Amino acid sequence: MNLQKSMQNYFEELSSSSPTPGGGNVAALCGVIASSLGEMVCNLSIGKKKYLNFEPEAKDLLTKLENFKKEFLTLAERDNEAFDRVMDAFKLPKETDAQKVFRSSAIDHATMEAALVPEEVILKCKELLPILETISEKGNQNSLSDTGVAISLISTAAEGAFLNVAINCSGLSNQVTAQEFLKKSEFIYNEIKEKSSRLISQLIKRMTIK
Q: Which residues of the chain have pLDDT under 70?
Protein backbone atom coordinates (compact mmCIF):
# COMPACT_ATOMS: atom_id res chain seq x y z
CA MET A 1 0.00 0.00 0.00
CA ASN A 2 1.36 3.42 -0.98
CA LEU A 3 0.90 5.76 1.98
CA GLN A 4 1.01 8.73 -0.36
CA LYS A 5 -2.34 7.66 -1.78
CA SER A 6 -5.70 8.05 -0.10
CA MET A 7 -7.70 5.06 1.06
CA GLN A 8 -10.20 5.84 -1.68
CA ASN A 9 -7.46 5.51 -4.31
CA TYR A 10 -6.32 2.27 -2.73
CA PHE A 11 -9.83 0.79 -2.81
CA GLU A 12 -10.23 1.86 -6.44
CA GLU A 13 -6.97 0.10 -7.34
CA LEU A 14 -7.99 -2.93 -5.33
CA SER A 15 -11.31 -3.26 -7.14
CA SER A 16 -9.87 -2.63 -10.60
CA SER A 17 -8.82 -5.25 -13.15
CA SER A 18 -5.19 -4.78 -12.13
CA PRO A 19 -3.87 -7.86 -10.29
CA THR A 20 -2.00 -5.64 -7.82
CA PRO A 21 -2.75 -4.79 -5.12
CA GLY A 22 -4.35 -8.14 -4.45
CA GLY A 23 -5.07 -10.59 -1.67
CA GLY A 24 -1.49 -10.82 -0.45
CA ASN A 25 -1.29 -7.07 -0.12
CA VAL A 26 -4.59 -7.00 1.78
CA ALA A 27 -3.39 -9.76 4.12
CA ALA A 28 -0.35 -7.68 5.07
CA LEU A 29 -2.56 -4.60 5.44
CA CYS A 30 -4.65 -6.50 8.00
CA GLY A 31 -1.45 -6.80 10.01
CA VAL A 32 -0.96 -3.03 9.81
CA ILE A 33 -4.49 -2.38 11.08
CA ALA A 34 -4.16 -4.95 13.87
CA SER A 35 -0.93 -3.30 15.01
CA SER A 36 -2.62 0.09 14.96
CA LEU A 37 -5.49 -1.16 17.10
CA GLY A 38 -2.99 -2.55 19.58
CA GLU A 39 -1.36 0.87 19.74
CA MET A 40 -4.72 2.49 20.35
CA VAL A 41 -5.47 0.28 23.35
CA CYS A 42 -2.00 0.98 24.78
CA ASN A 43 -2.57 4.71 24.37
CA LEU A 44 -5.97 4.37 26.06
CA SER A 45 -4.23 2.68 28.99
CA ILE A 46 -1.36 5.15 29.44
CA GLY A 47 -2.14 7.94 31.89
CA LYS A 48 -4.96 6.03 33.52
CA LYS A 49 -4.59 5.45 37.26
CA LYS A 50 -6.16 2.01 36.97
CA TYR A 51 -3.42 0.88 34.55
CA LEU A 52 -0.45 2.57 36.20
CA ASN A 53 1.39 -0.72 36.67
CA PHE A 54 0.95 -1.52 32.99
CA GLU A 55 2.10 1.90 31.77
CA PRO A 56 5.87 1.19 31.43
CA GLU A 57 5.13 -2.02 29.53
CA ALA A 58 2.49 -0.27 27.42
CA LYS A 59 5.04 2.35 26.34
CA ASP A 60 7.48 -0.38 25.40
CA LEU A 61 4.77 -2.20 23.44
CA LEU A 62 3.95 1.00 21.54
CA THR A 63 7.47 1.01 20.10
CA LYS A 64 7.19 -2.66 19.13
CA LEU A 65 3.77 -2.16 17.55
CA GLU A 66 5.02 0.79 15.53
CA ASN A 67 7.78 -1.44 14.16
CA PHE A 68 5.24 -4.13 13.32
CA LYS A 69 3.22 -1.57 11.37
CA LYS A 70 6.27 -0.60 9.33
CA GLU A 71 7.19 -4.23 8.70
CA PHE A 72 3.70 -5.18 7.56
CA LEU A 73 3.57 -2.13 5.27
CA THR A 74 6.90 -3.14 3.74
CA LEU A 75 5.59 -6.66 3.21
CA ALA A 76 2.48 -5.27 1.53
CA GLU A 77 4.66 -3.38 -0.95
CA ARG A 78 6.94 -6.37 -1.45
CA ASP A 79 3.93 -8.54 -2.25
CA ASN A 80 3.05 -6.27 -5.17
CA GLU A 81 6.65 -6.24 -6.37
CA ALA A 82 6.95 -10.03 -6.13
CA PHE A 83 3.82 -10.56 -8.20
CA ASP A 84 5.07 -8.11 -10.83
CA ARG A 85 8.33 -10.09 -11.10
CA VAL A 86 6.36 -13.29 -11.70
CA MET A 87 4.44 -11.59 -14.49
CA ASP A 88 7.67 -10.27 -16.00
CA ALA A 89 9.11 -13.78 -15.98
CA PHE A 90 6.09 -15.11 -17.89
CA LYS A 91 6.68 -12.43 -20.54
CA LEU A 92 10.19 -13.67 -21.31
CA PRO A 93 10.73 -15.06 -24.83
CA LYS A 94 10.28 -18.80 -25.39
CA GLU A 95 11.18 -19.27 -29.04
CA THR A 96 14.35 -21.33 -28.58
CA ASP A 97 15.11 -24.23 -26.25
CA ALA A 98 17.60 -22.07 -24.36
CA GLN A 99 15.02 -19.34 -23.95
CA LYS A 100 12.47 -21.84 -22.71
CA VAL A 101 14.88 -23.18 -20.09
CA PHE A 102 15.81 -19.67 -18.95
CA ARG A 103 12.16 -18.59 -18.85
CA SER A 104 11.11 -21.66 -16.87
CA SER A 105 13.91 -21.07 -14.36
CA ALA A 106 13.02 -17.39 -14.05
CA ILE A 107 9.33 -18.20 -13.44
CA ASP A 108 10.28 -20.74 -10.76
CA HIS A 109 12.62 -18.31 -9.03
CA ALA A 110 10.10 -15.45 -9.10
CA THR A 111 7.28 -17.71 -7.90
CA MET A 112 9.36 -18.94 -4.98
CA GLU A 113 10.13 -15.33 -4.06
CA ALA A 114 6.41 -14.58 -4.26
CA ALA A 115 5.75 -17.42 -1.79
CA LEU A 116 8.39 -16.18 0.63
CA VAL A 117 6.70 -12.80 1.16
CA PRO A 118 3.38 -14.16 2.53
CA GLU A 119 5.36 -16.64 4.61
CA GLU A 120 7.02 -13.64 6.26
CA VAL A 121 3.57 -12.19 6.90
CA ILE A 122 2.57 -15.40 8.68
CA LEU A 123 5.72 -15.29 10.82
CA LYS A 124 5.06 -11.65 11.74
CA CYS A 125 1.51 -12.55 12.73
CA LYS A 126 2.87 -15.22 15.05
CA GLU A 127 5.22 -12.67 16.65
CA LEU A 128 2.48 -10.08 17.10
CA LEU A 129 -0.18 -12.34 18.60
CA PRO A 130 1.43 -12.67 22.09
CA ILE A 131 1.68 -8.87 22.28
CA LEU A 132 -2.03 -8.52 21.58
CA GLU A 133 -2.70 -11.21 24.18
CA THR A 134 -0.76 -9.17 26.76
CA ILE A 135 -2.69 -6.04 25.84
CA SER A 136 -5.98 -7.89 26.22
CA GLU A 137 -4.99 -9.05 29.70
CA LYS A 138 -3.34 -5.88 31.05
CA GLY A 139 -4.62 -3.03 28.90
CA ASN A 140 -7.74 -0.90 29.10
CA GLN A 141 -10.59 -3.33 29.69
CA ASN A 142 -13.08 -0.92 28.15
CA SER A 143 -11.34 -1.68 24.84
CA LEU A 144 -11.55 -5.45 24.93
CA SER A 145 -13.58 -5.46 21.74
CA ASP A 146 -10.86 -3.43 19.97
CA THR A 147 -8.20 -5.89 21.05
CA GLY A 148 -10.48 -8.69 19.89
CA VAL A 149 -10.78 -7.12 16.45
CA ALA A 150 -6.99 -6.83 16.29
CA ILE A 151 -6.62 -10.52 17.14
CA SER A 152 -9.28 -11.41 14.56
CA LEU A 153 -7.42 -9.39 11.93
CA ILE A 154 -4.18 -11.21 12.71
CA SER A 155 -5.95 -14.52 12.16
CA THR A 156 -7.30 -13.17 8.86
CA ALA A 157 -3.88 -11.84 7.87
CA ALA A 158 -2.28 -15.23 8.51
CA GLU A 159 -5.01 -17.08 6.62
CA GLY A 160 -4.83 -14.70 3.67
CA ALA A 161 -1.06 -15.01 3.60
CA PHE A 162 -1.26 -18.80 3.74
CA LEU A 163 -3.63 -18.81 0.77
CA ASN A 164 -0.99 -16.87 -1.14
CA VAL A 165 1.74 -19.28 -0.10
CA ALA A 166 -0.46 -22.12 -1.34
CA ILE A 167 -1.23 -20.59 -4.74
CA ASN A 168 2.43 -19.82 -5.38
CA CYS A 169 3.57 -23.27 -4.26
CA SER A 170 1.11 -24.83 -6.68
CA GLY A 171 2.97 -23.13 -9.53
CA LEU A 172 6.45 -24.42 -8.66
CA SER A 173 7.94 -27.10 -10.89
CA ASN A 174 9.57 -28.93 -7.95
CA GLN A 175 6.50 -30.06 -6.04
CA VAL A 176 8.54 -31.93 -3.42
CA THR A 177 10.15 -28.67 -2.33
CA ALA A 178 6.85 -26.85 -2.73
CA GLN A 179 4.96 -29.24 -0.46
CA GLU A 180 7.66 -29.10 2.21
CA PHE A 181 7.51 -25.31 2.17
CA LEU A 182 3.72 -25.35 2.21
CA LYS A 183 3.55 -27.72 5.19
CA LYS A 184 5.91 -25.52 7.20
CA SER A 185 3.78 -22.46 6.54
CA GLU A 186 0.57 -24.38 7.23
CA PHE A 187 1.86 -25.53 10.61
CA ILE A 188 2.55 -21.94 11.73
CA TYR A 189 -0.74 -20.71 10.27
CA ASN A 190 -2.67 -23.38 12.17
CA GLU A 191 -0.95 -22.34 15.39
CA ILE A 192 -2.07 -18.76 14.83
CA LYS A 193 -5.59 -19.79 13.90
CA GLU A 194 -6.01 -21.97 16.99
CA LYS A 195 -4.56 -19.41 19.39
CA SER A 196 -6.58 -16.55 17.87
CA SER A 197 -9.78 -18.55 18.15
CA ARG A 198 -9.04 -19.39 21.79
CA LEU A 199 -8.21 -15.77 22.68
CA ILE A 200 -11.35 -14.42 21.02
CA SER A 201 -13.50 -17.00 22.82
CA GLN A 202 -11.96 -15.90 26.11
CA LEU A 203 -12.60 -12.25 25.31
CA ILE A 204 -16.23 -12.91 24.44
CA LYS A 205 -16.72 -14.71 27.77
CA ARG A 206 -15.14 -11.83 29.65
CA MET A 207 -17.42 -9.35 27.92
CA THR A 208 -20.66 -11.31 28.13
CA ILE A 209 -20.54 -13.42 31.31
CA LYS A 210 -21.26 -11.39 34.43
A: 1-5, 210
- Tally of structural domains, the chain: 1
pLDDT for 6: 84
Buried b (16+ CB within 10 A) or exposed e, 60-94: ebeebbeebbebbbebbbbbbebbebbeebeeeee
Cis peptide before 21 (omega within 30 of 0): yes
- Round to whole Å and give the CA distance between 147 and 42: 10
CATH number, domain with residue 84? 1.20.120.680
Sequence-distant (6+) residues with CB within 8 A of 206 are 144
What confidence score (pLDDT) does residue 7 get? 83
What domain range is 137 assigned to?
A: 21-208
In a domain, 122, yes or no: yes
Q: Which one, of 125, 138, 149, lies nearest residue 60 by Cα? A: 138
d(CA 96, CA 205): 65
Instruction: Please indicate, yes or no, if residue 12 is contained in any of the structural domains.
Output: no
Residue 182, in any domain of the structure: yes
Task: Report in angstroms the alpha-carbon separations of 89 from 20, 92, 96, 99, 166.
Answer: 16, 5, 16, 11, 19
- Asked, for residue 116, whether it belongs to a domain, the answer is yes
- DSSP three-state, residue 30: helix
